[in-house]
Amino acid sequence: MNTFDLHTHSIASGHGTQCTITDMAKQAAHRGLSLIGITDHGPATMRSCKPSYFRSLHMAPKERCGVRVLYGVELNILDYKGSLDLDNDILKLLDFAIASIHIQNLKPGSRAENTESYLAAIKNPYVRMIGHCDDTRYDVDYQAIVQAAAEHRVLLEINNSSLSPDGYRGDTRANNRKMLHYCAKYGHPVVLSSDSHGTAHIGDIRYAEEFAEECGFPKELILNYDLSRLKPFLG
């Protein structure tokens, strides 16, 4: 049974959802989750929140509606050097950070450039997870990314939204298959997450779960089923 969802977005992400953090926690409780990560988009995302929002999150309640809440951010990787859109003095106040590439902030480069942007982000001490690095518009070296993630104890995500029938990152199955192959080879765990914008899909990992099973990926390398195994990756 899925016990947590690390990648979700509230009204603060500015994507049209009107759901507050409490709304998100209520839905997480309704779906039987023990923990939820609130990871609103970093300030480089149009209409998202300002740095001051993230600076104040450490003062928010750590539990809502009986669900533990981790306050994080989905950072934007801004260039091929892995620059991020929040400074480390803010990131150190958060529970964790996801780093992702979004087409609005970084246009696809060469395979080497795209890969280097992820590798540099992985080396940031406050980045604990790489989000949806399955985007078909970005050619990357998955072996290098998995090896670096394993070295720096950074989680890799299988994004349910990417694999859903209405996903907008192209047919990501081949890229996710490569990522799972190397994670299995090096014994590096993954996280399945909803990337829910609002409450509609909180805890929904059905496409990611089905895909991992189809690939024969070892269940023991999926952290979602045992919350205690997540803690070492959050620093």
Helix and strand layout, with pairings?
Elements: E1 4-9, H1 21-30, E2 35-38, H2 51-56, E3 63-64, E4 67-76, H3 88-91, E5 96-100, H4 111-122, E6 127-130, H5 142-152, E7 155-159, H6 160-163, H7 173-186, E8 190-193, E9 196-197, H8 206-214
Parallel strand pairs: 1-2, 1-9, 2-4, 4-5, 5-6, 6-7, 7-8
Antiparallel strand pairs: 3-4
Helix pairs in contact: 4-5, 5-7
Short description:
The protein is of the alpha/beta class and 235 residues long.
Describe the structure.
This protein has helices at residues 21-30, 51-56, 88-91, 111-122, 142-152, 160-163, 173-186, 206-214, and strands at residues 4-9, 35-38, 63-64, 67-76, 96-100, 127-130, 155-159, 190-193, 196-197. The protein is an alpha/beta fold and 235 residues long. β3 and β4 (67-76) form a beta hairpin. α4 runs parallel beside α5 (142-152). It is globular and about 40 Å long.
Q: What percentage of residues falls in helices of 4 or more residues?
A: 25-40%
The amount of beta strand, in percent, is 15-25%
Report the total helices. Answer: 8
Helix and strand content put the structural class at: alpha/beta
Mean model confidence by pLDDT: 97
What low-confidence regions span 5 or more consecutive residues with pLDDT below 50?
none
What is the C-alpha radius of gyration, as a whole number of Å? 16 Å
Described by strand count, sense and barrel closure, the largest sheet is: 9 strands, mixed
Principal-axis shape: globular
Give the termini separation: 24 Å
Order of helices and strands: EHEHEEHEHEHEHHEEH
Q: How many strand units?
A: 9
